[in-house]
Write the structure tokens for this entry.
Amino acid sequence: MNKVQILVIEDDVAVGNLITTTLEMENYQFRLAKTAKQGIMNVLSYNPDIMLLDLGLPDMDGLEVIKKVRSWSNIPIIVVSARSEDQDKVKALDLGADDYLTKPFSVDELLARLRVTIRRLNNSQTISVNESVYENGDLTINYAQGCVYENGHEIHLTPIEYKLLCVLAKNTDKVLTHNYIMQEVWGSVQGTETPSLRVFMATLRKKIEPDTSNPKYIQTHVGVGYRMLNQTEKKED
């Protein structure tokens, strides 16, 4: 039995059956809630490791669920919703969701998103043991020294590029919205800073990516933001 416990908040019977059957086949432990209220109560009493959340719930919008849960819990939240517009994804991620899966989805994609989230949970536990050094494939960040290395060679970054890289690294495998990154790096969110973010991200990629036409570290989510990909896990796979 997989020790990871998953809470599914989904009112659509067919989708709920698909998700729970998939989890059962993969030996995940899970519970199903069909309303926002039931879901929130389950987070409080059941203490799950991951939440799969529909946004179109009968008693409360899923965005409100994210907001409420984030006021007291850091549980990873994967949104599973029919809302496919970029602004919906950005809202959910800005409120604290960790990932966003659009309906209809394949079983393989659902399981892949779960594996990514579980890896991030495991990574956060590993990094806390040695917070001064971050390693991801051939990329190394020595936080104590403020130095970055790629394949053993030191890379000279500007202060902004270094802050960008650290924000992405500390959230490996998590999609970060433009607004979140700008808040963390510049301390504010203004539309005029979005072009600056793109420019700095481009220069950062040129310095750390062996092949900028096929980036292996920083993945772009068009209209949403960026994600630091976990290269260590890819090598193990």
About this structure: The mean pLDDT is 87. The radius of gyration is 19 Å.
